[in-house]
């Protein structure tokens, strides 16, 4: 979709979008994430949540404490599917014990974000140690075995379209991270206890096929190439920020495929120009869904939560949440301090509508518990 230089306006508005809008109740409507055609609209009143919703479409919020399903106790032994479309599957994983099998995703690349816990992702290329805040990428068709050393909670994204590291080409090759910081598996002979047989699960969508071997099929003595699993620690992400402008979160895109973006929200200092800092923004993303695994919210509130913001639906803090944030901002300004953005989350933004599963809707229904 092409942007146009023919831009029109009517009524009250600001010349520079997102700057000096304090009392104007700005809402950002944009196509294709934040980089397609966009309009800023100015409401008379502050945003409020709907009084009542009839029908399935709504902003969905859930607490991670309501996700109790251990992978090892499920029928498949795999993570629990939460939201999906024909191209992207988003699951939650809670695993305490090592997978008793090896796993190969036949259909899709896998991206795992570790929210808590630690352990080893033993890939056939070699082990990748992981801890909270790590992204683990496993290309389609490469086998692995997750072996937690402490109970591990993770977001698991499967994408039929290949996942790649997002390029921000105008910013040079070393932002938002240098490829030198990636953890790459070193070949290692796994000294796991002998077993009568080894099971390799081949996963196609929901369908599983098991191949059994007398000897462990992870027997590599070497590898080379540009197709391999790796680890990225969120601590190594060096976000682009601005002193004078709140920049769009798609600037913090870390991974992408033709069917979704993965945006890493990391704590950072706010915009120095208070007239230009208008986060959190009221907006509607016309062409992207947002599925957010959250660690902490604004104003430093720890809140492990899992949200779904459907495309085209206005969001950003509404009602009391907005009031709370405004009070926090005024307090920081009155004290002469600098606003810190403490929102800490990973957002998976599929380009096509995702459907929630009963497992996710059950978590949503318990939000007020
Ligand atoms: Fe959004």
UniProtKB/TrEMBL annotation:
<dbReference type="GO" id="GO:0046872">
    <property type="term" value="F:metal ion binding"/>
</dbReference>
<protein>
    <submittedName>
        <fullName>Homogentisate 1,2-dioxygenase</fullName>
    </submittedName>
</protein>
<dbReference type="GO" id="GO:0004411">
    <property type="term" value="F:homogentisate 1,2-dioxygenase activity"/>
</dbReference>
<feature type="binding site">
    <location>
        <position position="289"/>
    </location>
    <ligand>
        <name>Fe cation</name>
    </ligand>
</feature>
<dbReference type="InterPro" id="IPR011051">
    <property type="entry name" value="RmlC_Cupin_sf"/>
</dbReference>
<dbReference type="Pfam" id="PF20510">
    <property type="entry name" value="HgmA_N"/>
</dbReference>
<keyword id="KW-0223">Dioxygenase</keyword>
<dbReference type="GO" id="GO:0005737">
    <property type="term" value="C:cytoplasm"/>
</dbReference>
<dbReference type="GO" id="GO:0006559">
    <property type="term" value="P:L-phenylalanine catabolic process"/>
</dbReference>
<comment type="similarity">
    <text>Belongs to the homogentisate dioxygenase family.</text>
</comment>
<feature type="active site" description="Proton acceptor">
    <location>
        <position position="246"/>
    </location>
</feature>
<keyword id="KW-0560">Oxidoreductase</keyword>
<feature type="binding site">
    <location>
        <position position="283"/>
    </location>
    <ligand>
        <name>Fe cation</name>
    </ligand>
</feature>
<dbReference type="GO" id="GO:0006570">
    <property type="term" value="P:tyrosine metabolic process"/>
</dbReference>
<feature type="binding site">
    <location>
        <position position="298"/>
    </location>
    <ligand>
        <name>homogentisate</name>
    </ligand>
</feature>
<keyword id="KW-0408">Iron</keyword>
<dbReference type="InterPro" id="IPR046452">
    <property type="entry name" value="HgmA_N"/>
</dbReference>
<feature type="domain" description="Homogentisate 1,2-dioxygenase N-terminal">
    <location>
        <begin position="102"/>
        <end position="231"/>
    </location>
</feature>
<dbReference type="InterPro" id="IPR014710">
    <property type="entry name" value="RmlC-like_jellyroll"/>
</dbReference>
<dbReference type="InterPro" id="IPR005708">
    <property type="entry name" value="Homogentis_dOase"/>
</dbReference>
<keyword id="KW-0479">Metal-binding</keyword>
């Amino acid at each position: 979709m092409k942007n146009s230089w023919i831009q029109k306006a009517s009524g009250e508005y600001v010349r520079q979008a997102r700057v000096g809008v304090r009392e104007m109740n700005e809402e950002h409507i944009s196509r294709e994430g934040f980089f397609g055609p966009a309009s800023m609209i100015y409401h008379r009143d502050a945003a409020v949540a709907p009084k009542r919703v009839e029908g399935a479409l709504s902003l969905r919020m859930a607490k991670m404490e309501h996700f109790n399903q251990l992978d090892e106790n499920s029928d498949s032994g795999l993570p629990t599917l939460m939201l999906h479309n024909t191209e992207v599957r988003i699951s939650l994983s809670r695993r305490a014990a090592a997978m008793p099998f090896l796993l190969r995703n036949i259909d899709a690349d896998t991206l795992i974000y570790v929210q808590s816990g630690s352990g080893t992702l033993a890939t056939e290329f070699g082990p990748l140690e992981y801890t909270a805040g790590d992204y683990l990428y496993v290309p389609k068709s490469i086998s692995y075995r997750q072996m937690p050393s402490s109970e591990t909670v993770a977001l698991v994204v499967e994408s039929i379209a290949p996942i790649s590291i997002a390029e921000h080409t105008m910013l040079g090759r070393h932002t938002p991270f240098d490829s030198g910081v990636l953890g790459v598996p070193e070949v290692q002979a796994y000294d796991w206890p002998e077993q009568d047989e080894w099971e390799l699960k081949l996963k196609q969508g929901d369908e599983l096929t098991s191949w059994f071997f007398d000897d462990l099929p992870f027997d590599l003595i070497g590898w080379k190439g540009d197709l391999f699993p790796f680890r990225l620690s969120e601590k190594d992400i060096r976000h682009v920020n601005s002193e004078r402008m709140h920049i769009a979160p798609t600037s913090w895109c870390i991974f992408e495929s033709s069917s979704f973006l993965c945006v890493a929200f990391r704590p950072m200092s706010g915009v120095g120009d208070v007239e230009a800092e208008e986060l959190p923004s009221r907006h509607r993303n016309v062409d992207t869904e947002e599925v957010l695994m959250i660690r902490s919210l604004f104003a430093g509130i720890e809140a492990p939560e899992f949200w779904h913001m459907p495309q085209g639906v206005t969001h950003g803090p509404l009602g009391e949440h907005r009031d709370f944030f405004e009070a926090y901002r005024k307090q920081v300004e009155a004290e002469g301090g600098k606003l810190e953005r403490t929102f800490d989350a990973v957002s998976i933004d599929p380009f096509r509508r995702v459907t929630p599963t009963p497992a996710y809707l059950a978590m949503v229904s318990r939000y007020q518990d």
